[in-house]
Protein: Rieske 2Fe-2S domain-containing protein
Organism: Paractinoplanes rhizophilus
Amino acid sequence: MRITGTGHASMRIDTSVGSILCDPWVNPAYFASWFPFPDNSQLDWETLGDVDYLYVSHLHRDHFDAAHLKRFISKKATVLLPEYPTSQLEDELRDLGFTKFLKTVSNEVHELDGGLKIMIQALTSPTDGPIGDSSLWVEHDGVRVLNQNDARPTDLTTFAELGHVHAHMLQFSGAIWYPMVYELPDGAKTAFGKQKRDRQFDRTWRYIDDLKADHVFPIAGPPCFLDDELWQFNDIFGDEGNIFPDQSVFMSEYAKVGGTNGIVLLPGSVTELSDKGATTTHPTDVDEFFANKQQHLEEMRARKAPIIAAEKASWRHPEIDVLGELKKRIEPLLEESIYMAQGVGGPVRFDFTDTDGSTGTIVESIVVDFPGKQVRPYADEKVRYRFKTGRALVEHLIHIDEGDWVNSLFLSCRFSAARIGQYNEFVYAFFKCLSEERLQYAEGWYDEHEKAVEAEDTHLGDWTVQRRCPHLKADLSRFGIVDGNTLTCQLHGWKFDLPSGRCLTSVGHKIRAEKTNS
């Protein structure tokens, strides 16, 4: 089996009976804030795109690059489609010209032509990607690969039971806006960032230890930030709170915990994989490349500047009545929302500036009033969540009828945020679901989740607790760590106060726990 690195979470898997291209991403994503690093735009995409199968793990725009898919990827390819609750991924791929689909069943092995076997595990909670994330398992001639990309399964048992895995590809770096965009003192922001960075690595080590593959490939990150306004997010300043460590940092940290089987794929790197071992060739020296990271970024920044400028020029639509259009789009969804509206529990304020981000003069302030089920002008009331961003960005979201502000505005990091109290997942879940189909799915998921009775227990230290995390049902017998009276679920870093059962990370999600008699 041959694995060709094609950048970020993308790779091409070649066997003697078929080839699979995974998650090709080349064009900037999220309001031109994210770019693949190392740069993969100069690869021979005409050749790389001539494949038998296409796998797009989910709709995050650093995995689903519509322009690139339309231009370079063969429409003769059969799409390996995850089993998602909505049809959006299939619909968007059909709009790009793809006509052949294998609609897989989650956790079921499918045999393709020539004996090539694949299995896709779909994760379908409202917090998994844009209503769905997935992992791809591939087997041919006794060699097995798991492309986990940036999915977060509660465990990897399903894959391990299919046989020993020879190559494990997984995310290790940040793909979020926290804590960089929050209006916090620098010291607090650094401390929270370091916690986030450490949790990312801890989760990665746990996954690696669970699967025990022969070889580990760090993928799906980090992006690079080439706009001057976002340049500080690149991990080139020695900031221990930066959540975007690169592959060379992964290799260094992995070595500290005894890891010796890591393989870095640059765009154009090729690994020849067998059940006996792996041999990798690179287009350039890997260590030297990352030693000169800032120089590479500076060169990319100069080369990509016209692309960023063109993107920014397309955002402004001053003719749009932002308040009126948001009322028209959001108020019907508020009327239908039960669980997410109750979960948010109060008004959320948006301040719009006259620039392309959170700086500049505020020209309009509105409130999405979840209890009142309305969108209205801000009335000087106290709010627990506040976002500040450029009015032009919201004009553009309205202009393109974007139904997912998480997969556009928030991941762009072109905003600032402030909150009083705990993180509230329902805020972001709602703004991911600005369409009838997504809202109905998410409400149904929360309804089923809230009504589920978690009867099975596990023992952690001096405590008996419910086995499944109240957040997304991770197995706490594997991911739970108790320190005194605090339980941490390492899968997503959520914390719980065991004596009271109260979630310390977010609103709601109380855990059932009892002190074990000694």
Observations:
- The chain has a mean pLDDT of 94.
- DSSP finds 15 helices and 27 strands in the chain.
- The longest strand covers residues 133-140.
- The CA atoms of residues 229 and 398 lie 23 Å apart.
